[in-house]
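Run log, item B.
One chain of 341 residues. Sequence copied directly from the ordering sheet:
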Amino acid sequence: MEKKHEQIHADQWLKDISNEPEIQGFRAEEMISCPQCERKSPPTRLKCFYCGFELPVSAAQAEFIKPQPRQMEAWEKAFNLIILPNAQTCDDAKLREVAAVTRLGKEDLRKLIETQKPLPLTRAESAKEAEIIQKRLSETGFESLILSDEDLKSEIVTRRLRGIEFDEDKLILILFNSDEIADVRREDLSLIVTGALFQRRIETTEQRKKRENKVLETTETSADELLIDIYTTDDKIGYRIISSGFDFSCLEAEKGILARENMRKLVDKFRAFAPQAKFVGDYLEIRDVLGKVWEVEEKRASSGLQRKSFGRMDFGNVMTINNLAQFTKYSRLQRHLLNVG
């Protein structure tokens, strides 16, 4: 009996092709030697493939590298790419190019760029990675500024004030929980940044069983307060007014009943006292897009065992969320921008 030939469809051969991506090869002279372990890594890497040591990447080798910034933890020191305003249109082609070197999606990028404000675009793990990202952004027509967390000094607590006195040609700043005072001349008052502190506290009680934890009770509280940061020409840390715990006697006859109302009156008084100072009050408008890169702080902690009845012990957990670190970074960014261009 004659054997029939197996029928093969025209596209059958496509099924035999491997779905794995093509592996890019490099010549021996293109590989980078690690100064730590002396092994060679591909020129597409910023750190050694074997020991994680930062590689000495030349300008020519940097062309091979495709930056892929990772999610940085809040406690990690990073280098921030601050995109500067320009008149470029945000077409899809440019957004794709920018998205390729950041962790942001196209729509988040579009919103950020369309604000036309200097805002953080991404955070890089090293200065070298930040420089490569900056170069890629420049090639697409977007100028940027590299600002490290060390430059922002966000780990240094802003000095809180409990009172202010307006003199003829100077401010007398009275520090919180201290007898210390500071004098600021009118002409030295350079920047006022306004914003708000938002805090949430979520407490949960769980009953732990062998297979799963059952949430028995959840309690959530929230609060918000207005903030004012004050900077002088020779100070990058600044002073902070928080609506609670501040003595508004400096408003004299204008002092109202509500702290929120008094904070707005205080800003107006600053404007009249130092018209040469820069005032930045857009934090509430841009905080959502700002949070894509500088995220709000979340802390989780256990409140331990809680006795509910005889023989029954439940577990308590507390999660706190606040934007204090985010606002501090934004405020310090505004102070740094005073010295740019």
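Observations after the first pass:
- The first helix runs from residue 59 to 62.
- Residues 201 and 320 are 5 Å apart (CA to CA).
Flagged for discussion on Thursday.
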